[in-house]
Structures are given as C-alpha cells and as structure tokens.
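F.,

This is the one I mentioned.
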C-alpha cells in the first residue's frame, strides 16, 4: 500500500452535505503510510459547523480501514470562514462590480421549470423595482445563466447573438430590459457542451469577472440542477445575498429540493424562500383547479427548511408559450395571474434582501 492507494480511497469520501470529495476539494494536505500499514492523513478545512471535522474523521477512517489500513490518524486543521485562507485554497467570494444584490435560483432536480422561473422572476424584479420607485425597469436587472450544459435563457429571452467584446470585457446582451449572459449565446443550436469540471468552473468565473454588467440593482443567477461543481464554484466565486429554491408539488421533487437547499445552508448562504412551480391547472371555463402533481409540496419544503413559502405558480400554457417565443409572460401579459404571482414573489424577495423604496 502506498500514498496513491490512500489518495484513491480518500477520493470516495464526500464532504458532508456535498457531492464533491475531499481530495478534489483540495482539503487533503498530506498523507503518510508506514510499513505496518498505519496511515496518517493531514487536512485543512474551513467551516463554522463544529460537527463537520468529526464527520470527516469518521468517514476517512472507514474508507482507509476498508482498504487494509490498521491504524488511521486524522489530523484536521480547522479555520472559521472569516479566518485567513490557507495557501492554495480559493479566495473568499467577492461582489460583482456595479451589482448591488445577487440571488441564485436553484433546484435539486431537473424538470421543475427552474429556468422559466428564473427568467420571469428577473423580469418581475425589474417591474417591482420600478413600482417601488427604486430604479427604472430597463437595465436594472441582469440574469446570468450558469446552466453551462443546458443553457436555455437566450431562447427564453429571444436573443441569440454573441456578446460584444469591449476592450477586455464582454458586454451582456439585452432583451426585454434585462441584461443577460449565457453559454448559449456562444453556441449554435446543435453544439453540445462536453466539458469536464475545471472548464465549467473557468466559464462561471469568466461570466462573473470578465463581463461588464454596468450598474445593476439585482442579478439573478440561474443554476443548473443538482449539487455539483457549478454550485460550489459559484458559491466560492460570487458573494450571494440568497438562494431561492424551486420545486414542484410531488414528493420526489420536494425531497430532492430539500437536499439541494441543505448544501447552500452548509455553505452559509442565506435561503430566502421556496417557490412551488406547476402547482395546479385551472380550468378556464369553470375555474376549477386540478392539482395534477399533488398539493402542498412547496409549503412543506419551506416548513422543513425553516424559510418562507413565496407562493404557487399555476401550470399555464402561456408561461410555456412565453418561453418558446422568447417573451416571458411577465412581459407579454403583465396583468395575467402568473405575472401577478411572479411580481408578488419579486416584492417578497426584495423585502427579504433588504431593498427598500
């Protein structure tokens, strides 16, 4: 048994609450093994949660004993998040120049309409800012599409052209009064994004650091589903003012949404609230509601996460049509029920992050 065997085994140990392992996270600083198969693992982590080091130690010992180590000693150097970072660890997240508030929209699983919610929420936030007399709707909100593998924001906003390069900075595209940046602006309709983690991380950092966003009141970040490299990179790169979780009513979506939300909680990012999408279908003739995917999942999720429930979005054909045609329903039909719900949610979010008229 050698150091390579030890590191390979440690690669199966995930950081508590996350999907990423402690080796790729850069937490393992040194490994030693003697001729008697006794191992010593030295680590450095940054956390304010006292239970994390103990959980890691138990998992490391189990993984190494599984491959034949007799005695395993785990030395963990623990720093608080506000303490100076150790050499080689990522710098603390920073604010995006010119952007006052940044919120991310997340979901544990795909297929819950997260990107549709993100685009309409961005438009609703712009309208809410104007209603409060804080900023004109035009140019006050940006949307950053971090779903690198499945970018859909350009289609939903009806914009396709690549961003303009001005000096060393990219200038985001503008549509319906929103400033937008997405990998989809650089691809044709048939080009897949086949990237490993490091390339994805670099793209997210470039969107945050190499784009001239101008002066924005709020940026909405559309995250990919899950709890992988994109979410971790974002949390390490950009200082977030909060996370909004999107779920649908059924039990499966609710369960996965809770797990995804706990990841951000462990990374000390405020959870603003929960939006339930595709909550019900309302018969236009009778007004009767059909809860196709179940009922109450969003409120149960919010209760379990000890956060606010922002409301229910109906299963409405016009929302889908707005995404397909490139004009969000919040813009296309401002007085519609879905648009009113989005705007109500937008006002609640502004209150949660401290935006006042």
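My design for it:
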């Amino acid at each position: 048994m050698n150091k390579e065997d030890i590191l390979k085994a440690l690669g199966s140990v995930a950081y508590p609450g996350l999907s990423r392992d402690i080796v790729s996270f850069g937490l393992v600083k040194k490994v030693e093994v003697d001729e008697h198969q006794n191992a010593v693992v030295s680590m450095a982590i940054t956390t304010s949660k006292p239970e994390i080091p103990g959980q890691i130690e138990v998992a490391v010992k189990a993984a190494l004993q599984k491959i034949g180590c007799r005695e395993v000693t785990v030395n963990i150097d623990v720093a608080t998040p506000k303490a100076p970072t150790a050499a080689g660890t990522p710098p603390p997240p920073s604010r995006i120049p010119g952007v006052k508030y940044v919120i991310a929209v997340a979901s544990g699983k795909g297929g819950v309409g997260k990107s549709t919610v993100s685009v309409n929420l961005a438009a609703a936030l712009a309208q809410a800012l104007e209603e409060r007399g804080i900023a004109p709707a035009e140019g006050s909100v940006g949307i950053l599409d971090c779903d690198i593998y499945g970018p859909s924001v350009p289609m939903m906003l009806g914009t396709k052209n690549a961003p303009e390069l001005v000096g060393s900075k990219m200038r985001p595209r503008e549509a319906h009064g929103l400033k937008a940046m997405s990998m989809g602006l650089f691809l044709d309709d048939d080009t897949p994004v086949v990237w490993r983690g490091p390339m994805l991380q670099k793209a997210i950092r470039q969107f945050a650091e190499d784009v001239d966003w101008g002066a924005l009141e709020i940026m909405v970040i559309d995250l990919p589903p899950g709890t992988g490299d994109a979410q971790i990179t974002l949390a390490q790169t950009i200082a977030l003012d909060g996370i909004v979780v999107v779920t649908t009513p059924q039990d499966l979506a609710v369960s996965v949404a809770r797990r995804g939300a706990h990841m951000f909680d462990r990374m000390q990012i405020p959870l603003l609230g929960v939006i339930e999408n595709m909550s019900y279908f309302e018969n236009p003739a009778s007004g009767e509601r059909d809860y196709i995917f179940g009922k109450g999942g969003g409120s149960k999720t919010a209760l379990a996460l000890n956060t606010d429930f922002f409301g229910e979005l109906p299963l409405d054909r016009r929302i889908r049509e707005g995404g397909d045609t490139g004009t969000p329903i919040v813009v296309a039909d401002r007085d519609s029920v879905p648009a009113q719900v989005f705007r109500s949610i937008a006002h609640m979010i502004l209150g949660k992050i401290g935006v006042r008229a």
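The CA atoms of residues 199 and 205 lie 10 Å apart.

Talk soon.
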